[in-house]
Amino acid sequence: ISDPSRPDLFYHPVSLPMIGSVYAVSFLTQPPPSPDSCSVIGWLPAETAGEADAEAGLNDFVENHKFHAIMHEAIQTGLREKVDDIWINGALQLQQGWMHIHGIRNLPALGRIGDPDDIIASVLVRDSNILPDTCQPMPSYRLCTSDGPTLLTGGLAAKLKLVLEGATAREAAQ
């Protein structure tokens, strides 16, 4: 099922032990090879407890910690491969220091630092060059906030999708 407001999000019905029927939220159109695949951003219950007609919402979202790890791998690789002009230009403007990598679901005001739960990682910039090996995940980052699920800049989003496709192929082969 595709999301009408976010065409890059897909909901796959799966069953989790001890929870039951849920929707696995993913950036990939194909269902995950397993309900807890690293390609799953998180899960939304198919039904809300005790409320017959109530729909699950963002407060019911449960993050997949495996996705956190693969997202950071994709971001670090994307920064190394210079796949996103936004971060390349950000490093040129900063010249020296730590640059926060954030998504675009809730952009900070120009020249301001974003909310801690919207900062995905920080990376060191030296002489206007990103040093990808210094990329550090921000522990307070949340995959889903009141502004919705993760929304990366174009180049990093494309890189993440490629990394997820490779990871699901490896998971399916096991």
Describe this structure in words.
The chain is α+β, with helices and mostly antiparallel strands and about 170 residues long. It has three helices and nine strands; from the N terminus they run E-E-E-E-H-H-E-E-E-E-E-H. The chain has helices at about 65-80, 85-95, 155-174, and strands at about 10-15, 20-25, 40-45, 60-65, 95-100, 120-125, 130-135, 145, 150. The strands form three sheets. A four-stranded antiparallel β-sheet has the order 1-2-3-4. A three-stranded antiparallel β-sheet has the order 5-6-7. A hairpin with a 2-residue loop joins strand 6 and strand 7. The mean pLDDT is about 90.
Write the layout of secondary structure elements.
Blueprint: E1 10-16, E2 20-26, E3 40-45, E4 62-63, H1 65-80, H2 85-94, E5 97-102, E6 119-126, E7 129-137, E8 144-145, E9 148-149, H3 154-173
Antiparallel strand pairs: 1-2, 2-3, 3-4, 5-6, 6-7, 8-9
List keywords for this structure.
174 residues, alpha+beta, four-stranded antiparallel beta sheet, 3 helices, 9 strands
Query: What is the arithmetic mean of pLDDT?
Result: 91
C-alpha end-to-end distance: 26 Å
> How much β-strand is present in the residues?
25-35%
Backbone shape: globular
SSE string, helices as H and strands as E: EEEEHHEEEEEH
In the predicted model, the low-confidence regions spanning at least 5 consecutive residues are none
- Alpha carbon gyration radius: 17 Å
**Count of runs of 4 or more consecutive helical residues:** 3
